Amino acid sequence: MAEEKKEGANVKGKEVIRLERESVIPILKPKIIMKLAYLIEQDSDRGEFLKLCKRVEYTIRAWYLLQFEDLMQLYSLFDPVHGDKKLEQQNLTPDETDTLELNFMSYLFQIMEKSNFKILSDEEYELAQSGQYLLNLPIKVDESKLDKRLLTRFFKEHPRENLPEFSDKYVIFRRGIGIDSTTDYFIMEKLDLIVSRFWGWLLKTTRLEKLFSRRKHFHKEDPKKTDELTAEDEEPEMFVERIRLEKMELSMKNLTGKLTIQEPTFDRIIVVYRQATSESKPDRGIFVKHFKNIPMADMEIVLPEKKNPSLTPMDWVKFLISVVLGLVTLVSSLEMPKADFKVVTAVLSGLIGYCAKIYFSFQANLVVYQNLITKSMYDKQLDSGRGTLLHLCDDVIQQEVKEVILAYYILMEQGKATIEDLDLRCEDLIKEEFGQQSNFDVVDAVQKLERLGIVSRDSIGRISCVSLKRANEIIGTTTEEVVMRAQQGPAA
């Protein structure tokens, strides 16, 4: 991984996260088409190529039209806002409604896969939660407010591997990796860090460190385990660096100046769940919420039905033990024939400081949490419900079109290729011409090209394409072209 120099805190070694690179082409479709057309030397071929790109998109859009219409029609019955009224009008039995629910979920998961979204696994969730970014409060889901019946039935009929523990209550889909950085003075966080390190020194001095280290050691094992699991993946990988305050050196420059912290983000997250309702009056609404650029360490902000944050049991234990230790030390010091005023002052200062630290840190973190929730609602949430589904449908088409165009262009310019060679050539083209890295889904691209009828395989499995003119003839004039010509007719 190429290392970039970043201004910020001095860290004791870099914390790097290893992640699987996804089969997503991050470049906009018009940019791909214009760039590839520019690379074609002959004007006549360039015109045929642009025509082919349009016909490919129109045809792929037509392939998915009926499936997308079924998806939207089914969702209208389970829309949390108006779905219950439409269900009443249908006069369906509970069993029929259950069947329609599963049909909708099946369509939804197919669209997710076509859009290259993946279900967040337990390992990925633990890896994301192994660090802290802007949110420093423990956020928990109120499971009593979430329905378990829908997803349990769905995964029973459509079993999947590596499902997370929470998959019976909600499902988190993720796609794409980015980076978020924040530069600030982090005054409260620095004070919290100073007190925390003083607390660590106090525990070590009083030999009570083992009492609190068990929990930490347990959590440290998960990221390592995750790294091992990810390292064994056969898929191409990418590396993202975390820069956290916890790794900061306590120097005067770091304590008084601005620092930059950095956290990898999930570029897109979609959360699917249903709220719990009573059996006498069941609510069939299915929530589908779409978020963007969510920092991994702060991904709790997208969880459904969150509990109000409060002090953790460990915070209360530390608080009570600090009070007891402080009082015992204080009483012992006062009972001595010659009480050491400095020791008494140090004990009282440490006790008061730590109690104040717990209170003010919690209040500051609560404000940050409320701000993050507000920001997630207005800035981070792209859409929900029908809007999310429409976005997904269009996203499927865009990805499919980009795959087909890139694969055809490589075959047209570089000739026959095995599926492995075609995969590498497409990835090299994306990297060289667009400066992006992508795990190209060559199998899906070739399947689409074969369905269009513009490629063939020889006896040893090499893939070749027909000429541009012949490809346009095979696909033929599309309905969209006929409509556009009709619209242009009167004007001409």
Folded structure, characterized:
Helix 1 runs parallel beside helix 12 (386-414), helix 2 crosses helix 3 and helix 12 crosses helix 13. The chain has 492 residues and is of the alpha+beta class. It has helices at 29-39, 43-78, 83-90, 94-114, 122-129, 149-157, 187-205, 209-231, 252-256, 313-335, 341-380, 386-414, 419-434, 442-452, 468-475, 479-491, and strands at 15-20, 118-119, 170-184, 237-242, 259-273, 287-295, 381-384, 455-457, 463-465. It is 57% helix and 13% strand. Residues 1-12 and 214-235 have low confidence and may be disordered. The strands form 3 sheets. The chain has a 5-stranded antiparallel sheet. The longest helix is centred in the C-terminal third of the chain and has 40 residues, at 341-380. The two termini are 57 Å apart. The protein is built from 16 helices and 9 strands. Strand 8 and strand 9 form a beta hairpin. The radius of gyration is 29 Å and the shape is globular. This is Aminopeptidase (DUF3754). Keywords: Aminopeptidase, Hydrolase, Protease. Pfam families: DUF3754. GO terms for molecular function: aminopeptidase activity.
Number of helices: 16
In whole angstroms, the N-to-C terminal distance is 57 Å
Q: Measured on Cα atoms, how large is the radius of gyration?
A: 29 Å
Query: Could you tell me the number of beta strands?
Result: 9
Give me the secondary-structure category. Answer: alpha+beta
Q: Give the strand content.
A: 5-15%
| Backbone shape | globular
What average pLDDT do the residues reach? 83
Fraction of residues in H or I helices: 55-70%
| Sequence stretches where pLDDT stays below 50 over 5 or more residues | 1-12, 214-235
Strand order of the largest sheet: 2-3-5-6-7
Listing every helix as H and every strand as E from the N terminus to the C terminus, the arrangement reads EHHHHEHHEHHEHEEHHEHHHEEHH
